[in-house]
Amino acid sequence: MRTRWHVAVIVGVALGLAAPAHADPRAEVAAKARSAMASYDAMDYEAARRQLYQALAIAKKAKLDKDPIVARVYLDLGIAQLAGSDPEGAKVAFLSAVQIDPRIAIDPAYKSAELVRMLDEARAAAGDSGEPASDDCKSVRGLQLAAIDGAHPGVAQPVEALVGGELSPARVVVMYRPEGAIDFTEVRLTRQAGCRYTGTIPAAAMHGALVHYYVAAYDAGNKVLAARGSSGSPLALDLGAAATPGHGTAEPSHGVAEPGGGGPPPSSPEHADTPGIVGAATPGPRGAKIVIAASIGTGVGYVTGKTEGENMVQKCCLGTSPVVISPEVSYRASARLSIGAVARIG
User: Fold this and answer.
1) How far is CA 302 from CA 132, 228, 230, 320, 326, in A?
2) Quick check: 134 and 146 in contact, CB under 8 A?
3) Which of 24, 43, 113, 248 is deepest in the core (most CB within 10 A)?
């Protein structure tokens, strides 16, 4: 009996040591947010937004939607959106933040008069309505796409959009393209209460690593009124890493999209190529960091004095350069800053 008792204790300890430790989702969210703001400080606003979307997806999966730490993530997202020249996206993010924590304040390191004003406006908007801001159709402009916080293979994916009253669309659709398909397939979104439209990407399309899609609103003449994404620059549901989002709450769009496959062609050639803010959706390839380019041409001009070869011009007037080549090498430090060098060979 004694021997058996000792064996049982040893096995129990071994099993206890082998048990996996569970990660703290709040700590994960906080770590993602810190990393995002470090990217913001380095002026990589797209990386900051992407990491903040990831933090929101982790919080959603852990059912921390109303936790104060999520309010902070939304606030940081609003700061990054404004820096990335997206004031409408910043307003939506601030609204989400104050709905969770009405007393939330901007960190002094990031405070500016414009951010403070936008946060005050968000508090006022949240206080004027007992419903979430997405249900207040008076504040909706253009087409806003609700967050997709998790996409899974073989599971139908709900899609929800808000359409501003100024558009008055004849129909709103989601165009999706499964991995391996060439054309997009159309699913019409059904209008619910107010300005809300809902639909579903079918489970049969949710396979492979990525499912591309975009959402568009059309008028009666099949002209695109507004869209999130396009056939040339669609949004993407990442089924290989469903918890990794690429864009948080919702983002309005006033551009138009280029439909594909099952959709009728727009009457305007323009299309909105900026991906919408949707969780678990990633934009297309980012621009290259290193750019190498060259231009070639010819030139003619008035010539006098010394030439580049230190020779005096004997006769004045017109000089020609039959071939001029200008090679360039530059580095894209951020969306607003490039550093490079250009040479001229003539």
Assistant:
1) 68, 52, 49, 9, 21
2) yes
3) 248
